[in-house]
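Q: Hi! First time doing this. I have a protein sequence and I read that you can turn it into a structure. Is that right? Here it is:
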Amino acid sequence: MLRVIGVLMVVFAGLWAAFQDNLGSMLGYAAILEIGLSLVLIGILAGNFESEHLGLFYAMLFPRGLGLGLWALALATLRTRATSLKFNEIQGSGRVLPITTCALVLAQFSLAGVPLLASFPVRLNMWNELAHVSPVITLWALLGCMGLLFGGVRTLAVLVTGDEEVGWQITETRQERVFLAIGVILLLLLGLFPQLFLPSLANLPLKFAQFLP
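A: Yes, that's right. Below is the predicted 3D structure, encoded as C-alpha cells:
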C-alpha cells in the first residue's frame, strides 16, 4: 500500500512539475515527489529493518534537504527582482542572475536524480533495491523523476532565453553569491564523492537501535 501511494505521488508530482509555469509551484511538486519517494522506500523497508536498509533511508535526507534548500534560496533571490515566479515574468533573468540560475537548475537536476549531483548515489541504491521488489513500480517512479527533470530543462530554457540586447552580467549581492556558490559546490562534492557523507549517515540507525521493533 505504501509503495502504491508513494509511486502515485511521484508520478503525478513529476508530471505536474514538467508542465508547471510557476517555479514556486514546481518546488511544491518537487517536495511532494520527495515525500512519495520516502513512502516508496518505507514500503521497501516494511518488515525488513536491517541497518543497511535503514541507512539508505537516512542517507536520502541530507541531499534532499540540500536540493530543496538551494532551490528555495535561488527562488528567494529571483523573487526580489521580479513581480512573480511565473515563467513569463522571469524570462531572460538568467542573463543578469547567472549564479542564481546555475544554483536553481542544478538543484532541480539533483532532485531529479541526475548523475554527478548530490541525490544520484542514494537514488541509484534505492532504484536497485526497488527493482528487486517491483520493476513496474520502479519504472513508474523513474517516469515521475523524468518529469521533474523535464521541468528543470524548461526552467533553464526560460531563464537564459530573452532579449538578445541584454548582455550577460552578475547582479547578485556578495552575500547571495557566497551562499548560492556554497550550495552548488556541496551538490557537486556530494555527487562526485558520496563517501564523504554516506558512511556516517548509513550508521545513524545503529545509534537508535534501542527504538527499533
